[in-house]
Design the sequence.
């Protein structure tokens, strides 16, 4: 029996991936048995194949297979390699043979393959998943008993939300006054504000201090926005003024307003700088040097 969770618009896509590779599940799962003497028997283990475009501009598709040859495929914002330590890594040569199975899902784009054994629980939030019913319901039950919702997120994810993740997946968005980096990770979206464009010759550390004040005041008043920070997995190669975080399910509410929010932020910074510089120029209580 098969179990699926997630928007119906993605069911067929995951089903085709599952059907194209499930015939090899016994072979794939045998690798868990092969290394069982070195694994902690108190936990379950999955032989895992992680597939993603080499540009890392699309959510991650992973195939999980247990020692009994039962498996499922899951779509997520994060890679299992970002949320857990791999117990054993394997070469990608055999995975390359499966490239054709993923062409329908990713299209004609260069893909990267990684294989490893991971210990359960996976601690990975899924956008959708498709696979063996008994296996998935077992993992869902484990989640519930631990008070976690890694496998429950698809219940509140629809096609529009996944499309938002794909459209903005770990990308810089350009606006008139600057740029913003969108970083979907697990069940949240990080929103990193780039430095505002300005003709003023002001040290960027000043702008960043003002940005921290802006974030502090905003997050006090609007709980949907939370303070966050730049992390190594974001791979940001340029200065960032401040970072917010929102729940993924709030993306429909926040992202359409993002252009206005960022321009508002830039305006606040510019007006603060202008006010201070003008007051120093015109109202400073001491005489200028040389007067």
Sequence:
């Amino acid at each position: 029996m098969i179990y699926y969770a997630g928007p119906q618009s993605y069911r067929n896509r995951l089903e085709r991936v599952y059907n194209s590779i499930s015939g090899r599940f016994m072979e794939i799962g045998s690798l868990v048995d092969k290394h069982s003497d070195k694994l902690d028997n108190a936990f379950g283990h999955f032989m895992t194949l992680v597939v993603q475009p080499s540009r890392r501009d699309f959510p991650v598709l992973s195939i999980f297979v247990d020692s009994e040859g039962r498996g499922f495929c899951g779509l997520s914002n994060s890679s299992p390699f970002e949320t857990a330590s791999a117990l054993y890594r394997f070469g990608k040569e055999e995975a390359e043979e499966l490239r054709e199975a993923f062409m329908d899902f990713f299209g004609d784009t260069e893909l990267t393959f990684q294989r490893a054994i991971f210990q359960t629980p996976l601690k990975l939030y899924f956008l959708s998943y498709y696979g063996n019913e008994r296996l998935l319901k077992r993992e869902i039950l484990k989640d519930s008993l631990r008070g976690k919702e890694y496998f429950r997120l698809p219940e509140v994810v629809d096609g529009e939300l996944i499309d938002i993740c794909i459209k903005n997946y770990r990308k810089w968005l350009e606006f008139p006054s600057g740029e913003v980096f969108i970083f979907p990770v697990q069940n949240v979206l990080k929103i990193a504000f780039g430095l505002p464009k300005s003709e003023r010759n002001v040290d960027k550390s000043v702008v960043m201090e003002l940005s921290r004040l802006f974030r502090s005041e905003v997050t006090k008043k609007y709980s949907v926005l939370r303070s966050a920070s730049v992390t190594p997995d974001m791979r940001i190669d340029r200065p960032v003024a401040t970072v917010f975080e929102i729940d993924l399910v709030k993306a429909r509410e926040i992202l359409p307003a993002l252009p206005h929010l960022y321009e508002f932020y830039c305006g606040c910074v510019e007006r603060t700088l202008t006010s201070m510089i003008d007051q120093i120029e015109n109202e400073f209580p001491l005489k200028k040097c040389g007067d």
